[in-house]
TrEMBL record:
PROSITE patterns: GNAT. It comes from the Bacteria. It comes from Paenibacillus aestuarii. This is GNAT family N-acetyltransferase. Residues 143-280 form the N-acetyltransferase domain.
Length: 280
């Protein structure tokens, strides 16, 4: 029997779902990392759990207006997912979109489309989640990894802004400045420096019990095709492993074969395909 249960209490929700999510930390790095960082004062649009019998099959969390994050699903058939879609449509009729494992997310969106009278969901991005436990390739260029500091704000602010443009994230320059300041404050934003000049950046984010995610990988156009992004990610990855994490993970855009190739050369292995689907 499939049941969709909505939660209103954040602490109860965390207690219920975190042990389930931690069974696959890399695949669930987005929903798990976001959930663990939430406080009672945070804006939360939706929290729910899908049960199949007595077991959790899927976790749903929405903290942003444009999409619901789906966990990796377990033991749910296509018929089960259609049943989830019907229950979800009844409890949340204005679903904006989803991000999650490709097959289940696509099936769930198709179910929602049916119950909403044919309103389609468009693919915003096809992604792949990678996981690394052992680094296979160390940095090759004669540079060093260093923590991004407040003095780097003018440079990194522009990089964050350009990164968001290239990844289709709508953001003003003022919003980019605020986000950059927050990233620097958290202390996990790092840059690859060559001859005293920053040439690439990467960020550690969403730390969980044994995993941390690498994000905001960016190299300015003038410094590309020199291997700096690969070196920056490799060095930051090793630093995270040295800090005690058993693995690191990252998302890639499947439309960018170059980044997918260099991450695999470093030692990242694909664990799950993900998709962002937004309703028109």
């Amino acid at each position: 029997m499939i049941r969709l249960i909505q939660f209103d209490d954040l602490s109860l929700f965390k207690k219920e779902v975190i042990p389930f999510l931690e069974q696959a930390e890399a695949e669930n790095n987005l929903v798990l990392g976001v959930l663990q960082a939430l406080t009672e004062e945070a804006k939360i649009y939706y929290m729910a759990v899908v049960y199949k019998g007595a077991s959790i099959g899927l976790v749903l969390l929405q903290t942003q207006p444009h999409q619901i994050i789906l966990s990796r699903y377990v033991q749910l058939t296509s018929e089960d997912i259609r049943s989830v879609g019907e229950s979800l449509h009844r409890s949340l009729p204005d679903i904006p979109g989803f991000i999650g494992e490709k097959q289940a997310t696509s099936e769930l969106a198709a179910s929602i489309t049916h119950f909403r009278g044919g309103i389609p969901a468009a693919v915003f991005m096809n992604q792949r989640i990678y996981k690394l436990e052992t680094l296979k390739r160390k940095p090759l260029s004669p540079g060093r990894l260093r923590t991004i500091a407040a003095k780097d704000l003018p440079t990194i602010r522009e990089w964050v802004y350009q990164f968001c443009i290239e990844t289709n994230q709508a953001m003003s320059e003022q919003e980019a400045a605020k986000r950059t300041a927050l990233l620097i404050q958290k202390g996990l934003l790092a840059g690859w420096e060559v001859d005293g000049k920053l040439v690439s950046m990467a960020n550690g984010t969403r730390p969980t019990r044994t995993n941390v995610t690498i994000s905001y990988v960016y190299t300015p156009v003038s410094e590309r095709k020199k291997g700096y992004a690969a070196d920056c990610v490799a060095a930051l990855t090793q630093q995270m492993l040295d800090n005690g994490y058993k693995s690191t993970s990252l998302y890639t855009d499947l439309s960018n074969p170059t980044s997918n190739k260099i991450y695999m050369e470093i030692g990242y292995e694909p664990v799950m395909d993900s998709v962002v689907l937004l309703f028109q």
